[in-house]
Amino acid sequence: MAGIKCGVEECYYWDNMACTADSIEVRSSGDRKVVNSDGTACHTFRPKKK
Length: 50
Description:
Blueprint: E1 26-28, E2 40-42
Antiparallel strand pairs: 1-2
């Protein structure tokens, strides 16, 4: 997938500030109405194996 920026170095799909996942899923991170990016969470995240 092209064009998805990511700053989470600990994610399996992270590659030099880019997301390499085939697709991504983003959801609300809480019970409140989302009004900015702080209220969202990437559910595609997978920790890198050590």
